Description:
mainly alpha; two-stranded antiparallel sheet; globular; MFS; membrane; MFS transporter; cell membrane
Amino acid sequence: MIGVLNNRTYRHLYAAQIVALTGTGLATVALGLLAYDLAGAAAGLVLGTALTIKMLAYVIVAPLAAAIAERVDRRRMLVTLDMVRAAVAVCLPFVSEIWQIYVLIFVLQSASAGFTPAFQATIPDVLPDERDYTQALSLSRLAMDLESLLSPMLAAALLLMVSFDGLFWGTGLGFAASALLVVLVALPSPKPVPRRGIYDRTTRGLRIYLKTPRLRGLLALSWVSAALGSMVIVNTVVIVRSDLRLAESAVALALAGFGLGSMLAALILPRLLDRVEDRSVMLAGAMLGTGAMGLTALMSAALPMTLSMLALSWALIGFGYSTVLTPSGRLLTRSAHPADRPAVFAAQFTLSHACWLVFYPLSGWLMTVSGATVTMAALTTASVGGVLTAWAVWPRNTAQPVPHSHPDLPPDHPHLNGNGPHSHAIIIDELHPRYPQEP
Length: 439
């Protein structure tokens, strides 16, 4: 898997991702401490509001940023957004009012909503070979999982030497280092595209996404990932501290189970995806995670919950979660021309975070009013609905050539190449506004 790091450009981009993720992890810890410093017992409400603002920024800003990305140099855009994030991070230590947190978080996450899809869309241009790209996706997943495990430990070590304000400076340094790594390499940019209006550019990614059957299946599986992931992210601390009455260290052990399951899937997937189609792998992962959540709900209703039971369940859910998310970049890349990739990646970013915007508050509310068993049962039901929808809307072999014709094109049109009816894999564009088999 690490052979892909021999590519100098990708090596710089991967290093940029790692240092930016580390900075983000430090900011997560510091933001919680800042909220408690300003709001005391109401810190949970402040963080919940900040998380909602983050999701809203992702949903609203990503399509607008994708429209801008069509017209600007890719490297310049990434570096600028990294520097915006660094500037916001170094402003956070000077916050004295709660509303200032909300404003800065919106700016920070708006920059991330522009940066992340453009960054993700650059990787398949740097690594055009699908096997290399699959390995890069697994490495990216490993980086995210390791960050979730190691950043809290790094933050704890730093807090022995500096106050929590110092963590924000570390965050700013991480984003600045990311910008430096990006600026040191030349990035391919898509070829110029015909001039389009702002509405067309803003909605283009969403229109391509929703007209592509395999991406509609991906959206349904993103719903599953959000349902399963929200239970782990939002409620692990409540289950461990309130239901099991264990120490804070037990929260880390339970979350480590989720992370280790996810990392194991990321290590296995490159070879597995060489042999099995993405649809089968991703549906199997969704079913595994859903089944693990449902079984845990049943067991918690009949037996006392234990930490080992919870960690094992979270590991299975983490394995399924990573199995769904890791191959998604391959689907997006296959479903768009290079010039449209930033828009399509932005559409996935927007729609997947819209799913999280549903499940974050729902998961927390259900846990508060009904407890863990009912919450897991409800989220399992929602997840089953997502799996069934993905199964129904995502046909098999959508990457295979599809016989079709273009009666609206003149016989000498370059796309026809002298042929009438012809066959190729379908990508939604001006010549193929919908899949041929669809009415």
